[in-house]
Amino acid sequence: MNKKELISQIKKKRSFLCIGLDTDIKKIPAHLLDADDPIFEFNKQIIDATKQYCVAYKPNIAFYESLGVKGWESLQKTLSYIPKDIFTIADAKRGDIGNTSDMYARAFFETMNFDSVTVAPYMGSDSVVPFLQFKDKWAIVLALTSNKGGLDFQTIKDADGQHLFEQVLETSKQWGTAENMMYVVGATRAQQLAEIRVIIPDHFLLVPGVGAQGGNLQDVAKYGMNTDCGLLVNSSRGIIYASNQLNFAEMAANEAMKLQLQMDVLLSENNL
Amino acid sequence: MNKKELISQIKKKRSFLCIGLDTDIKKIPAHLLDADDPIFEFNKQIIDATKQYCVAYKPNIAFYESLGVKGWESLQKTLSYIPKDIFTIADAKRGDIGNTSDMYARAFFETMNFDSVTVAPYMGSDSVVPFLQFKDKWAIVLALTSNKGGLDFQTIKDADGQHLFEQVLETSKQWGTAENMMYVVGATRAQQLAEIRVIIPDHFLLVPGVGAQGGNLQDVAKYGMNTDCGLLVNSSRGIIYASNQLNFAEMAANEAMKLQLQMDVLLSENNL
C-alpha cells in the first residue's frame, strides 16, 4: 500500500487506529481452544469485528514464532484474511547485515505479503536499506520506544547534546523517503513528538503504548499529527483482550470503536 | 550448554570455530535440489563433514524465515541433527519490549532448543533480560558489528568520549553474568577488542567477519583471547560455499580444518 492510499483510508474510515494482534494462546477465550487453529480463529473473529474501526493490523511476530511451524501457519492465514484495503505491519524488529536483512525483507514482503516491517537501527544503513527496495512496501524504524529500557541507550546524548534517537532519525531519513519509511515513537514520550516532528515533519509515525502502556491519545495527536495525519496509533491488549468470554469479539469492537470515535474528533480538529 | 562445558569442548577439539549455516537455496549445489528438503540435506552433509572441526553452529534465521513454513521445518530438522556436544546459536538479532522478548526467548529456547540467541540492544534492559531467565541458555548481545553500517551509530561518542558500543557493554553486563551473556564483536574491528576486554574481561565474544568480511584470525586472538579462550570465531560463506560441486562437503571440511589448525596453534600459544 502506498502513502496516498493509506491517507485515503484514514480519511474514509475517520480512524488512524492500528490493532496489534499479539495473540497469545494462554490469553484467548477457552471456548476457542477446540478449534483446529485457535490462534487463527481468534484473529479471524477479531478482524471481522474490528475491521471497520481500524486502518492497520500489526501481528506481533514473536507470538507466532513461539509456536514454531504451527504459529507461522496461523500467521499466514491471518495475513491472507486481512482485507486488502487495510495496511499490514509485521512487528518483527528485524535488522542484520545487508545480505541477511535482504532475506528478512523477502520473508515479509514476498514469502508473506506484508505492507511493512518494523526494523531495529543498531546495525546502521545496510541493515535498513534492503527493506526500502520493494515497491509500495515500508520499513518502520525504531526511534524512541515506549518501554522502560527505551531510556537505557536511546536518550544518550552526544557531545553536541543530541540524543541517540535524534541521530537515528537524522541519519536514517537520508536512506529513504516519507513514502517508504515510518518511525516507531512511543506514546509514553508524547511531548518528545514535537521535537521529532522538527526532524521528520512528513514521515508517518507508528505510535504504540496508548492504553495498556499508559500513553494519551490527545497528547499524541497534539504533538505528532501533521497535515496528512501522519500517525498510526496502536492498541493491542486493550482491544483484543477486552474480554475472554464468548462475546470477546464484540467487546473488542467496542474498545476499537471508542478509540475510533476519539480519532474522528481529532482528525476533524485538524481539518482532516 | 554451560560455560564450563563450552570451554571443555574448545580444549578437547582444539578449536573455537563456529560455522554459520547461512544456507541459501540459490547457492547450494544443483544436485541437491531434487532432495525432499534441499536446505536440510545441504546442512546435514555440511554438519557430517565439519563437526569434528568446530564447537558451534550458527544458523542464520533470516535464510530459513525467507522460505516460510518450509524454512522453519528445515531449521528444526537441522537443529535436531546437530550433535548435542556442539553449541548452537540462533542468529536472529531479536529484541522487543519485555513480554515480546519473552516470547522470542521461548521460541528459540523451548519450542526449538537452541543454546543461545543473538539479541539487539537498542530497546534496552527489558528487551534483553527475558533471554537470561533460562538455565544454561545464553543471550549474545550485539556490541560492535563488522558491517559498514556498524559505524553509523555504534561508534557515536557521548559527552565523556565513550562510544555507544562501550555504553552498551558497561550497562548490559550488569543485567547478567559471563555465564549467560556473550557479545558480538566484528573481526574487522580487531584492535578494538583490546579496549572491549578492559570492560568485559570474562565474557565470551562471538566474532563474525573472519574470511568473507576480511577479518584476521591472528589479530582476533591477539586482542580478544582470555584465559578461557573466550572466543567463538564464525565463518559462514568461506566454509559452506567453498565449492558448489558434488564434493562441496569435502571442500567445506577442508576450509574448516584449515581454520581449526590455526586455532590449535593460537590456543597453544595462549597455554590452552
Structural key phrases:
homodimer; TIM Barrel; 12 helices; 272 residues; 15% strand; alpha/beta; 42% helix; 8-stranded parallel β-barrel
What do the pLDDT scores of chain A average to?
A: 96
State Rg of chain A: 18 Å
Report the uncertain regions of chain A.
none
| Biggest sheet details of chain A | 8 strands, parallel, barrel
How many DSSP-defined strands of chain A? 8
CATH superfamily of chain A: Aldolase class I
Strand-and-helix sequence of chain A, N→C?
A: HEHEHHEHEHEHHEHEHEHH
- What is the approximate shape of chain A? globular
Domain count of chain A, please report it.
Answer: 1
Concise synopsis of the structure shown:
2 copies of one chain form a homodimer. By secondary structure, the first copy, chain A, is an alpha/beta fold.
Give a structural overview:
The structure is a homodimer of 272-residue chains. Chain A has one domain (3-269): Aldolase class I (TIM Barrel), CATH 3.20.20. In chain A, 42% of the residues lie in helices and 15% in strands. Chain A is built from 12 helices and 8 strands. The model of chain A has no long low-confidence stretch (mean pLDDT 96). The longest helix of chain A has 22 residues, at 248-269. Chain A has 272 residues and is an alpha/beta fold. In chain A, strand 6, helix 9 and strand 7 form a beta-alpha-beta unit. Chain A has an 8-stranded parallel beta barrel with strand order 1-2-3-4-5-6-7-8, surrounded by 4 helices. In chain A, 57% of the residues are buried.
